[in-house]
Amino acid sequence: MAMDRRVFLVLLLAGCADTSPQGPLTVISPAPPPPAPSPPPPTMPAPTPQTPVPAGELAFDTWMQDFRGRALAAGLSPDLLNRELSGVIPDPRVISLDTRQPEFSKPVGDYIRGVSSEDRVTVGRNKREQLAFLLEIEARYGVPRDILLAVWAMESAFGQLQGNFDVVRSMVSLAADGRRRAWAEGELIAALKLIDSGEVTRAQLKGSWAGAMGQTQFIPTSFRATAVDFDGDGRRDIWGSDADALASAANLLTRGGWKRNVGWAKEVILPPGFDYSVTEGPREVPAWWEARGVRRADGLPWTAQDAASPAMLILPAGAAGPAFLALPNHFAIRTYNNSTSYALGIGLLADRFAGGAAPITPWPVETPLSMSDRMAAQIALARVGFNPGPADGVIGAGTRRALRAWQQSQQLPSDGYLSNDMVARLKAQAGISP
Ligand code: CA
User: Fold this and answer.
1) What is the C-alpha separation between 309 and 324, in angstroms, rounded?
2) How far is ligand 1, taken at its centre, from the CA of residue 227, in Å?
3) Distance between CA atoms of 282 and 268, rounded to whole angstroms?
4) Of 79, 139, 158, 315, which has the maximum CB count within 10 A?
5) Region labeled Disordered — which residues (predicted)?
């Protein structure tokens, strides 16, 4: 999947990242990943370079010369490097996409509604009935077909939008640019090794601007480590074979800790006066939560497997929106893209494919927060003594933790959700003009 899958999860607000075929988009409007230190998801470790990779700006020719040394040390031949890298120059579109900063963050409810559009649900339900190989993949890997269909829908619109960037050139562009050099060089070396092995040609190695390839948007290291040949033709073809692509996604999720017969999340209703400070906190079995008044929104009983599984409370839109107990497989989905909103979107879309309904508690109607408001809230939190980390406008786990602590100090529901109201209160308290 994507991108950097993204790379970054750059999650604004509730930590939502969206993947588009053209690159990972954060929920926030077209938000590409920030210059994040972490590689994109699928979270596969980047290969350790043989020699240290220098950080910072370098002239392109200087970078290329240095990189060739590291590529040779990684086992690639001079002939291959000459053939594949001669004449390659950075693609300005890739750098532009990599440095976009969205002005507004999309409210998570809008994101989830977009993920679960009726058109998409209809297509998914049809494919669910038509594609017999889905049940074979489910039997082999233990990942439900509805989850695989949701990944397929989110990553490439069921294979329709795979991206047409030359992955080698995209990785050259990102590596030479330097913001994510070590990650991009690792992906570049993996892409060159794929070509060198004869498994994939340069012409076939197409993907998003951030190097996410095929129907499941695997970056090259993920492809090498986890793609599988499911249809038995001897090739791992995540571009042209639906069965190979979805089995590869199932394999990635299995390696990410997917547990057979365990759920991903259940919507819950919280009792009046609930202590929201446990949001994104302890992972406890459903009976622990029920002892605190938490009950399933659908009123159904827990399966034996889910009843024995630790679950985390998440409130993607704060106390005003739906609440969920995230079961172990929620976190397996996050190995694909480490975003709460992404994983929730996959799970809710899968529920719809299986015939389920949208969440019972409606998503609140919200105005998107601007970058300056997000940054002002972070500056205000730091000023009043609750360090949220860098004031970068990205509302990640650190900012949410600081926000919960501040809310608790103000006797506000400590849901860690940065609403417009919270921004206004923080700015007022910190003496930042509105
Ligand atoms: Ca195949």
Assistant:
1) 14
2) 10
3) 16
4) 315
5) 21-55
Other C-beta atoms lying within 10 Å of the C-beta of residue 76: 20
Please provide the distance, in angstroms rounded to a whole number, between the alpha carbons at the two ends of the chain: 40
Q: What is the pLDDT of residues 1-24, one digit of tens each?
A: 443 333 333 333 333 333 333 333
Q: Please give the average per-residue pLDDT across 322-336, as a whole number.
A: 96
- Å from CA of 280 to ligand 1 middle: 40
Q: What is the pLDDT of residues 21-32, one digit of tens each?
A: 333 333 323 333
Residue 230 CA, ligand 1 centroid: distance in Å: 6
Q: 403: domain range? A: 371-430
Residues 341 and 388 in one domain: no
Residue 153 has pLDDT above 80, yes or no: yes
Residue 127 has pLDDT above 50, yes or no: yes
Question: Considering the entire predicted model, what is its pTM?
Answer: 0.85
DSSP 8-state symbol, 277: G
**Distance from residue 224's CA to the centre of ligand 1 (Å):** 14
pLDDT at 121 over 50: yes
Q: Find the mean pLDDT for residues 332-346.
A: 92
Q: Cα–Cα distances in Å, from 394 out to 101, 103, 134, 399?
A: 10, 11, 37, 8
Average pLDDT over residues 102-115: 88
Give the Cα-Cα-Cα angle 192, 197, 202 (nearest 5 degrees).
50
276, 184: one domain? no
At residue 375, does pLDDT exceed 90?
yes
Residue where a domain terminates, one of 306, 326, 354: 354
Residues 309 and 401 in one domain: no
Q: Which residues contact 64 (CB under 8 A, 6 or more apart)?
A: 85, 172, 176
Q: What pLDDT sits at residue 51?
A: 61
CA of 233 from ligand 1 middle (Å) equals: 5
Is residue 319 domain-resident?
A: yes
Task: Looking at the structure, tell me whether residues 198 and 60 fall in a common domain.
Answer: yes
